[in-house]
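FW: tagging you since you asked about this chain on Friday. Here's the raw sequence from the shared folder, copied in full. Didn't touch anything.
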Amino acid sequence: MFHAPSASLNAAQARAESIGYLALTYVGKRLPLQVRHSAAGYFIGTTEEGGPVSRESVEYFRSYQAADQALTTGCWQQRLHP
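HL: got it, structure written out here
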């Protein structure tokens, strides 16, 4: 179950710090953004202890390289709700 947003950073600030906005807002954890993979494709998200915490990007990417480039360049759209 998700709790009401409680982050002290907005999405742009979290992105500037390269941490997951949804992870911070809904789980209360400052986790680094990274490329993740699921059955739907590659995406930008967060993990903790090897397990998924949040999918931060709206987009799914066809390859690890495309997702990594989006993360590096900032050319991706932040999800605002889980």
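FW: The two ends are 11 Å apart (CA to CA).
HL: agreed, and Strands lie at 34-38, 41-48, 51-55.
FW: great, closing this out.
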